[in-house]
Design brief:
Number of strands: 10
Low-confidence stretches: none
CATH superfamily: Rieske [2Fe-2S] iron-sulphur domain
Bound molecules: FE2/S2 (inorganic) cluster
CATH architecture: 3-layer Sandwich
CATH topology: Rieske Iron-sulfur Protein
Strand order of the largest sheet: 4-3-2-10
Strand content: 35-45%
Shape: globular
Number of domains: 1
């Protein structure tokens, strides 16, 4: 088994405005290409796989645009599943009760980092 790669530097903290556009990035889930995103909500950076719990498709209607008009919920652009940005839990829509797959993220020293794990690896290694 190969060691889990170290934390990945995704973007500067100030690239994520409060309830703003997300930073979207490529990664591998069990070796298959997927995308993830991080956004700032209520001051905290959260991260999830960019994959709806209803049909495995990307959520954003335009790259990095995940939140609804009032900037309160993550909305799937396909059939409108509504997720709580704090937890990734789907509160309404065709997959209510399911959740987005969370990513372990941390903000420190003005940067946002993602921590790979055994199932989720960087798409590109330095
Ligand atoms: S694919 Fe997201 S709600 Fe159907």
């Amino acid at each position: 088994m190969s060691p889990v790669p170290p934390a990945q530097d995704l973007c500067p903290s100030d690239a994520l405005a409060e309830s703003g556009k997300a930073h979207v990035f490529d990664l591998l889930e069990y070796g298959k290409p997927v995308r993830g995103f991080v956004l700032r909500f209520e001051g905290r950076v959260v991260g999830y796989l960019n994959r709806c719990a209803h049909v495995p498709t990307e959520l954003d209607w335009k790259e990095g645009e995940f939140l609804d008009g009032p900037r309160e919920w993550i909305i799937c652009s396909i059939h409108g599943a509504t997720y709580d940005p704090r937890t990734g839990y789907c509160v309404a829509g065709p997959c209510a009760g399911r959740s987005l797959k969370p990513l372990q993220v941390q903000e420190r020293d003005g940067r946002v980092y993602w921590y790979p794990r055994e199932d989720l690896a960087p798409a590109f290694c330095d």
